[in-house]
Automatic annotation (TrEMBL), chain A:
It holds the Pfam family TOBE_2. GO terms for cellular component: ATP-binding cassette (ABC) transporter complex. This is ABC transporter ATP-binding protein. Belongs to the ABC transporter superfamily. Keywords: ATP-binding, Nucleotide-binding, Transport.
From TrEMBL, chain B:
Its main location: membrane. The lineage of its organism: Bacteria, Pseudomonadati, Pseudomonadota, Alphaproteobacteria, Hyphomicrobiales. GO terms for biological process: transmembrane transport. The chain crosses the membrane at residues 20-40, 77-101, 113-137, 157-184, 205-230, 261-282. Belongs to the binding-protein-dependent transport system permease family. CysTW subfamily. This is Polyamine ABC transporter permease. The keyword Transferase does not apply. Residues 78-282 form the ABC transmembrane type-1 domain. PROSITE patterns: ABC_TM1. It is a multi-pass membrane protein.
TrEMBL record, chain C:
GO terms for cellular component: plasma membrane. It comes from Azorhizobium oxalatiphilum. Keywords: Cell inner membrane, Cell membrane, Membrane, Transmembrane, Transmembrane helix, Transport. This is Polyamine ABC transporter permease. Residues 64-252 form the ABC transmembrane type-1 domain.
Length: 364, 290, 264
């Protein structure tokens, strides 16, 4: 039998991706944590693995890092199949949710650890450590212990430690979720800036859709171990392929209906549903729904649904309404302009939205 | 077969199972030589025949066991040891409960200091603490001299059961206190406050709320103290002065002085059986409480 | 902090019980400074002669040396044997790890009087009685369970991501263990060493079975001394032992306290 090079067997042609996953699968007994995961990440891109906890995103990251074994499938980096290579020979930089700094070493020694393992000459190592610490703006803290630093500073050290070895890929496992809201925004931008400046390929695991949408080139939405959709943040948000993606990324209103002959009937509305037959879910995002008190009629331009206000919530920058309509509670939100009256519960209103803002999925 | 069907072995020279075996080998050897084999051997020894002088014979039989279970001396020894140990256990519980309750109620530095004072005796050799009791209980000791100064003829407090009971109770108190404390976690002061606001007197609150809630801790402490009492050797030997006969002291005498090893082995196994009974009783009590 | 008043009755009873609990330790101190030839409380005269007597008692000094040596050897072996065992049980989790763990800590369930006899019966025919090796082996039986238990807890509470971080940075498994795992276990190692040292140094019953006329440990020598004549020398020795114990505990507290500043 002919021995073939692993990357050819894995079905990968050169140039498809710097990091490629081919049928990556992880089973624990009957439970499938990651199911037939295929992905190509071009060089220099920042990709987010987004999904609820238990969706397999962290397991996937750990398999890429070599910290968890894969049941089947391949991991290919720059044309080299690294499946089965132990983590210490993978050349990945991993940043942990818990920072995972060495508590018994100072900051400089933490950052120098990877260089020491690679037997980088002392003088060069010292220079690179200095640069890395400067890059994360921690110059002067070299001889502090991790415990003496704040959470944000610790995470910056972890970033410097991962990057100083110039890894082929940077892996970030929920790096911001232990930080408070303000620091989170700051660190998010900092990670993105550094990643762009170094042109490093990076995978960013998160359960926070805001993080994924705001800083990543591509977003991979996962659920129950399966890839639901992959695309740019814009594609994911504007054109969710599945009901799960529509519901997980951004807020959504759901209406149950029935489709036949390419048209879905929902609460008296007729919605275009090409290719659907049987029960469907029709969805629209709250901020794409307009609310008016002067009875807009449904036409080709807008879908319209009458209802009654059940709750009004003034949240400063936005005004939210809950409206009983179409046999369910629909939500709307609109930016406040100042001076508008807040409608009392019981007020009859009409909800309307554009057909292109309407998503239709087969009911599960 | 293609290359990628093979799992990539990395650079590990040994399989995980081999590594585990290698790491566990030293402790397994020590455990086998110093624990498993001696325990099995102990059981076998109790069935070995011996001459009247104590010299071991190559034959086995039930002679030793028949002697142990029919001789009134050994039977008294067993029942006496159980009785004394039970009495000491109850006494230890009564003496330790207030300390544990107080420790549970107080907090901060004061609690730490008191806790250290409870643990300190544990870190001190039983020989030292027993010696301390000799200084208190002997004929020239603290109590005797204090009573004499008051013109009272002091009773004998040492080289008899009284001394053994006093000494052992104190020696076992730290164990009981720690066991009680570990079980006091469920005792939220708000339960007591609730009972008081519902009209229960402090005394009733103690019996109806505090005692039931702390019962698991008491059961654990009693098990521990009974087991330690019936197997303790140094204190009964030194404070009993050879006049108090208990299972543990008899095992030592049979093994070292009389050199009747089958008898010593049989008595040891009786202690282990009593342990088993105590443990079973504890498990049943715990289930009833819970 | 919400303070709840503690009833004066409980306070009083607790005070009495604490006096009872600490009485034997308290009386030892004045007796150690007794000037009498025999033990009496209160002593009729005061001196430090009994402290001097310890160092002129050849048997006591020899037993003391043996005890220190024994405790050190037992502690070192306990760490060397206990650490690999704990690592295998906690980290590699072989099948039956729990059963093995129970087996290795089972010797603690046996009363030392029974364990001592059982070991005596096996060691006597092997000619190990009255030898240093025999004492080491016997003490290991009771120190190893503590070592395995404390080290297992220490290992189980270590944050695994820190070791994984080292691995992704290029450290091989052995390097991870020596450069990351072991330094992080520092306080656990110190506590284990202290515990093993104290357990070995204080052990009486096992040693009583194992020692002979030519080889004795300090607690055994003290036991025999008290059995024959309870003179104030034992009190002086006891005070020295309490001080030694305090020193060990302080060392642990210092290092464990230091370790706390490392870990958040």
């Amino acid at each position: 039998m002919i021995r073939t090079a692993p990357e050819e067997t894995a079905g990968l042609k050169q140039g498809e991706g710097f990091l490629s996953l081919r049928g990556l699968t992880r089973r624990y007994g009957d439970f499938v944590a990651v199911d037939d995961f295929n992905l190509d990440v071009p060089k220099g891109e920042l990709v987010a693995f987004l999904g609820p906890s238990g969706c397999g995103k962290t397991t996937s990251l750990r398999m890429i890092a070599g910290l968890a074994p894969s049941t089947s499938g391949h991991i290919v980096v720059n044309g080299r199949d690294i499946t089965g290579v132990p983590p210490y020979q993978r050349d990945m930089g991993l940043v942990f949710q818990s920072y995972a700094l060495f508590p018994h070493m100072d900051i400089a020694k933490n950052v120098a650890f990877g260089l020491e393992m690679r037997k980088v000459p002392k003088a060069e190592a010292a220079e690179r450590v200095r640069e890395a610490i400067a890059m994360v703006r921690l110059t002067g803290k070299e001889h502090h212990r991790p415990a003496q630093l704040s959470g944000g500073q610790q995470q910056r050290v972890a970033l410097a430690r991962a990057l100083v070895v110039r890894p082929s890929i940077l892996l970030l496992d929920e790096p911001l979720s232990n930080l408070d809201a303000k620091l989170r925004d700051e660190m998010r931008n900092e990670i993105r800036d550094i990643q762009k400046r170094l042109g490093i390929t990076a995978v960013f695991v998160t359960h926070d859709q805001m993080e994924a949408l705001t800083i990543c080139d591509k977003v991979v939405v996962m659920n129950h171990g399966k890839l639901e959709q992959m695309g740019t943040p814009h594609e994911i948000y504007e054109h969710p392929k599945t009901a799960f993606v529509a519901g997980f990324v951004g807020r959504i209103n759901r209406l149950a209906g029935k489709a036949s002959g390419g048209v879905a009937e929902v609460a008296g509305l007729k919605v275009a549903a090409p290719g659907f037959n049987g029960p469907v879910e029709v969805m629209v995002r709250p901020h794409r729904v307009s609310l008016s008190t002067d009875g807009v009629q449904a036409d080709g331009e807008r879908h319209a649904l009458p209802g009654t206000v059940t709750r009004a919530t003034f949240a400063g920058d936005i005004l939210e309404y809950e409206v009983e309509a179409g046999g369910t509670i629909m939500k709307t939100e609109a930016a406040t302009r100042g001076g508008e009256a807040v409608l009392a519960p019981g007020t009859p209103v009409t909800l309307s939205w554009r057909p292109q803002d309407t998503y239709v999925y087969a009911a599960s | 077969m293609t290359a990628i069907d093979l799992p990539v072995a990395g650079k590990r020279p040994m399989s995980p199972t081999a590594v585990v075996m290698l790491l566990l080998l030293p402790i397994a050897v020590i455990n086998a030589i110093g624990f498993l084999w001696p325990v099995v051997n102990l059981l076998r020894m109790s069935f070995r025949d011996s001459e009247a002088s104590g010299a071991l014979l190559e034959t086995s039989g039930l002679t030793t066991w028949i002697n142990v279970l029919s001789d009134s001396f050994t039977l008294d020894l067993i029942t006496g040891s159980i009785g004394v140990s039970l009495f000491i256990t109850v006494l230890t519980l009564v003496c330790s409960y207030p300390i544990a309750l107080y420790l549970h109620r107080c907090s901060g530095l004061w609690r730490t200091v008191l806790l250290v004072l409870v643990i300190a005796p544990l870190l001190t050799s039983a020989v030292v603490r027993t010696y301390g009791w000799i200084a208190i209980l002997s004929d020239q000791g603290l109590i005797a001299n204090a009573l004499l100064a008051l013109g009272i003829t002091p009773p004998r407090l040492m080289f008899n059961l009284t001394g053994v009971i006093i000494g052992l109770t104190e020696i076992l108190m730290p164990y009981m206190i720690l066991a009680l404390l570990s079980g006091f976690g469920r005792l939220d002061p708000r339960f007591e406050e609730a009972a008081l606001t519902l009209g229960a007197t402090p005394w009733k609150t103690f019996w109806r709320v505090v005692v039931p809630l702390t019962a698991p801790g008491m059961a654990l402490g009693c098990l521990l103290c009974f087991v330690l009492a019936i197997s303790s050797f140094v204190t009964p030997k030194l404070l009993g002065g050879g006049r108090v006969f208990l299972l543990a002291t008899e095992i030592y005498d049979q093994a070292i002085v009389t050199l009747n090893w089958p008898m010593a082995a049989a008595l040891s196994i009786i202690i282990l059986v009593l342990f088993g009974f105590a443990l079973a009783l504890y498990t049943r009590a715990l289930r009833r409480i819970a | 902090m919400d303070e709840r008043p503690i009833s004066p009755v409980l306070k009083g009873v607790t005070l009495v019980m604490f006096l009872f609990l600490l009485a034997p330790l308290i009386v030892v101190v004045p007796i150690s400074f007794s000037g009498d030839a025999y033990m009496a409380f209160p002593p009729t005269s005061w001196s430090v002669k009994w402290y001097g007597a310890i160092f002129h008692d050849a048997q006591m000094t020899a037993a003391f040396t043996i005890s220190i040596l024994l405790a050190i050897v037992v502690t070192v072996i306990s760490l060397l044997v206990g650490l690999p065992a704990a690592y295998a049980l906690v980290r590699l989790k072989p099948r039956g790890a729990e059963a093995l763990g129970s087996l290795f800590t089972a010797p603690l369930l046996l009363p030392t009087i029974v364990l001592g006899l059982a070991i005596l019966l096996v060691f006597a025919p092997l000619g190990l009685l009255g030898t240093f090796q025999g004492l080491v082996a016997a003490h290991l039986i009771v120190t190893l369970p503590y070592a395995v238990r404390v080290l297992s807890t220490a290992l189980a509470t270590l944050p695994i991501p820190v070791e994984e971080a080292a691995a992704t940075l290029g450290a091989r498994p052995l390097t991870v263990f020596f450069k990351v795992t072991l330094p992080m276990m520092r306080s656990g190692l110190v506590s284990t060493a202290a515990l093993c040292f104290l357990v070995s140094f204080d052990e009486v019953v096992l040693s009583l079975f194992m020692t002979g006329p030519r080889l004795s440990t300090l607690p055994v020598a003290m036991y025999h001394h008290v059995e024959q004549q309870a003179d104030p020398m034992v009190a002086s020795l006891s005070v020295l032992l309490v001080v030694l114990t305090l020193v060990v505990v302080l060392i642990v507290d210092r290092t464990a306290g230091l370790a706390k500043t490392f870990v958040k």
